[in-house]
Hints:
Elements: H1 3-19, H2 32-62, H3 71-79, H4 89-93, H5 100-115, H6 139-148, H7 156-174, H8 185-195, E1 203-207, H9 214-225, H10 230-234, E2 236-242, H11 245-257, E3 261-266, E4 281-286, E5 295-296, H12 297-300, H13 304-307, H14 320-323, E6 328-329, H15 333-342, E7 344-355, H16 364-375, E8 378-384, E9 396-402, E10 413-419, E11 424-427, E12 430-432, H17 435-448, H18 452-479, E13 483-491, E14 496-504, H19 520-545, E15 548-549, H20 554-587, E16 600-604, H21 620-624, H22 635-669
Parallel strand pairs: 1-2, 1-4, 2-3, 4-7, 8-10
Antiparallel strand pairs: 5-6, 7-9, 8-9, 10-16, 11-12, 13-14, 13-15
Catalytic activity: a 2'-deoxyadenosine in DNA + S-adenosyl-L-methionine = an N(6)-methyl-2'-deoxyadenosine in DNA + S-adenosyl-L-homocysteine + H(+)
GO molecular function, one term: N-methyltransferase activity
Domain DNA methylase adenine-specific: 156-444
Amino acid sequence: MTDIELKKLKDDLWHAADVLRSGAHLAANKYGQPILGLIFLRYADILFKQHKQEIQAEYDKLKGGRREKTMREIAIDKCGFYLPEKAYYDSINNAPDDAKKATLVKEAMEAIEKENPTLVNVLPKDVYEQLVPEEEPELLSRIVRIFKDIPEKSTLDIFGEIYEYFLGNFALAEGKDGGTFYTPSTVVRYMVEVLGPEPGGEKKFLDPACGSGGMFVQAARYMHKHNADNKEMMNFRCYGVEKEPDTVKLAKMNLILNNVRGDIREANTFYSDPHNAFGAFDYVMANPPFNVDEVSYDRVKDDKRFNTYGIPRKKSSSSKKNADKKETVPNANYLWIGHFASALNETGKAALVMANSASDASGSEYDIRKNMIEEGIISQMVTLSSNMFNTVTLPATLWFFDKQKAHGDKKDEILFIDARNVFTQVDRAHRKFSDEQIKNLGIITKLYNGDEASYQELVHEYEEKLAEGVSDLNQQIKDFVPYNIVFEVENPDIGKTEEITESFALGIDKLDIVLVNHTAELLHSELEKLSKCRKEFVKADKWINGNKVKKGQNKEVQEFKDKIAGGLELVDSVKYYLKNLLWLKEKFPEGKYRDVIGLCKAAKLDGEDGIKDQDYSLNAGRYVGVAVDDDGLSEEEFKEEMLGLSQELKKLQNESNQLMEAIFNNMQILGIENKG
């Protein structure tokens, strides 16, 4: 399945399930649980079917011998679980469309849990009764049929993508509350890109506020992508802590759907340590809840997970009223930060999301931060754009730890990245990273660490994408033969409509762009060429849509419009990769790390404007500075954009004048005097 086909499948499945949500007797924030359960059921059905012949063959081979095994034992060896017949998806899908369907789904979930102890109390069951309302008893059947559309040959990766896609959309639908169990995947992917988990040997991975398990899944995918074999993936073990019972279930299903080995415990990390975390982990990643208060000081003060670097304290108060109260930690942000650092082993690395305010926090938090900076374990700080998360609209900061750094030549140095201007707008209230933005930001860290080969590989990747796009675009230009279209035009001289045949041909026969060895200056000139090419397709669009087409030419007109749309899409694709190449070449023209004003700075502990000079602040803006940057538009694009804005302003002014005139006339009709 191609990326485009997978995207369409995910979109179609989500749209179909979302359309039916209004009929369910469930609050919006509860609809996700039964839907994700059905995705899991469909996954189990397809995966089991894919292994069934192999399972049966081994069962027959061993039957009656010393090594005889049950079907269940063989199934667990082959695909990780056993699926009883009553849980087959077709059995449920083919049953009558009535209220008994909910009972069938519940019994299927119970049967799976009975045969697979690791899934006990994980799968949703009773909630399906609310998907067979009296006024629409066939609702659950309709939802079940939606997921029947997932192809039988779907792989584990496809199901993992679908599950994550639904998790993300449910989190968006829930707004602020959705962010408590889901961290946007593009932020997690960037964190993993910087962390770079490596296969080889036993690897232990902790998330003490794991939500639905997205950190684990993205880390596993990163390792798969970087050629970790099955044996190495079996040594990749995830340990999670999550206090919400329903979210624990989501996380366990997520790990199973993505074939990730893990142990998720329901607990409160502040008061419980189910995984004996101190100094035990190779990697720690988390997006913990920000600014938690009322954590009992007495319950954490003697816990080495939290007191290694210090525990936040309130300023002392001598009042009798305060003396009688049990002391609480004023803000738990630095409890989390200290826990992540102390959970690492001698070579461990960590990445966490934290409120921006923690970077400059004063009082006891200042002392904790100073201890960590001087020890040399903080490797990198990244400030993100606003609206990257569901829970907060303000910018957040990513903290990165590296215990080995404390013993290297960069002990007294921290890499700061200001990524507030790096984002892709999803809608008015949400932003994300594109795939290329993740790679571009990730390359800063790689260059800083001396990995110049990765920079050249990324440049080569963009050049290949560019060459492919230019080839496709030139083929589109070549295929754009002159079109003869009959228009109906009003002739005011004779007061009649006349038929006029016109022909349109593009004013360009080829896009000639240099595909290798780019400089920033050259890329700017190539963008100019691309802008002129785009104008030709825009002219064609205005030509076909600016006149009344005579009836009976639907096929020709649609074919013409499709070629225009295809051409514009290809132009924009070529432009996209040109701009990404330009970003790399402008920021790092020599293919080596350098400080870039407004983007990145390797700040020293000592020296002028060093970290000590900045009072141990970890706010990237203090070090990186502000770039007086252009908007990335070519001269032609800038003119085109300004013309469009000018026309829009003119239109709004006309509408405003018409509205004012209407208001004035209405006031006169009502006999209201305008004294303005």
